[in-house]
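Q: Could you fold this chain for me?
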Amino acid sequence: MRGLLVGAKPGEPEVPPPEVLRNIFVQLGPVFVKFGQLLSTRPDLLSPSYIECLSHLQSKVPAVDAVTIEAFIRQNSPVPVEENFSHINYTAIAAGSIGQTHRATLRNGRDVAIKVRRPGIEVQVEQDIALILRIAGLMNSTQFGERYGVLDLAEEFSNALRAELDFTTEAAYTDQLRQNLAQSHWFNPKELMVPEILWELTTPKLMTMEWLQGKPLLAATLLGRPDVDRERKAITTLLFRAFFHQFFIDGFFHADPHPGNIFYLDDGRLAILDCGMVGNLDPRTRTTLTEMVLAIVSADAQRCTQLALQIAEPTETVNLVKVEADIRRLLQRYANVSLASLSTAEAFNALLQIVSRNNLRWPANIGLFAKSVANLEGVARQFNPAVNVVEEVQPLMTDIFQRQLFGDNPLQLLLRTGLEFRNLSLESPRQFAFLLNRLTTETLRLNLNIQGIDDLRQSIDSAANRRTFGTVVSGLIVGAAILSTGQQTPQLQILSEVFFVVASLLGFWLLVGIIRSGG
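A: Sure. Below is the predicted structure, expressed as structure tokens.
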């Protein structure tokens, strides 16, 4: 901002240390806390120390008092509260920046959780979003803003936050995740829970779901069937298989599996809570990521570079040789690391950083994927320090490749491929005849897009303008010299001096411009 105000050419911004930046977001309020949480999903923008610090960013927001919440719930309930609930605890059991959770009991005796949107939060959200968009608009005109897509990041955050204000969106995400994990041959779906949504008691401001009795995984006491160590290994395997099922089979995944969102229930099952942050991976991206995992394990820098170019979008001219050399150095760094101590999340985040430094921009869903993997691995290592991530994932890779190659229905894939070849065989002669017709009638035009030609044209135009400018300055000097020779009248003397002054100023201006541009 300082550079923008003084008219200088701003470079990379000076970001405060991670802890200071986290405290700034907390002091600015709930919206900026959410913004910090979004930034924690972008390892392509921030270094690992910032990602780690912002991943633990939580709002220090006190819960709304019981009297206010009771009035809010009664006002926004689709039917009178007494018709559905025998009891509601209006004192929150958990509070966040957007909503807070209360325990209640239905008239049939079933315990439920009610998530309530904080009264008046939508006004503050819109004010802070407008401010963030204005700042992003100013930064978008800078080289830094264009490189990192600051305006796109701000708009992405605005859309995500507005969606989070509508609890029916989170309820739909929860329902989808519950249905996706209800069947899998990688794990026993009966061992994993996602809370059921009670849609008849859910509105944009209130979300009602089944109550799951338990504690956060890292704070729970295991039942130990048949022993605690075996139980820990079984839970770790269940977690990895459940999340890799989301990543590579469904493409729809929980993007924030931090320790508070994974519960160990009293009956020994696991539960995944809080689907406010989710990600989506299309089939093409899932296939590319699968190959990238294999390329990283195989230390194939060339293939890793090719796959990165399939996902990332270039923002400037890309030096492919440098990208491959940087990736090769990264993979060599992990070549001698034992599989047991290998941090796949750290390696993948380092890869994101390398590609970003080489003028390539990752899509937002890749950042969410990296965050989810990092959180998952972090929880697994805290819960079970002996975990071997590669050992957990390796048995799944063959099945993943087989599914991506043949799909769930090989016969349907074969028929679809045959249909595409049939269409291609029918269309090819027509297209070829059309091309020959254009050639014979001399109406064929070639549309070439040469990378970097605009920069070259601008450089040539700039050089031509300077040469013309220099010619004008020289003409003024010559004209002034001619006027100064021979017999002079006072008018000619003044005109000659004016020519000299103007020529000097213009020449000095041209010289400063050449020096500032480095040419």
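A (continued): The longest strand covers residues 99-106.
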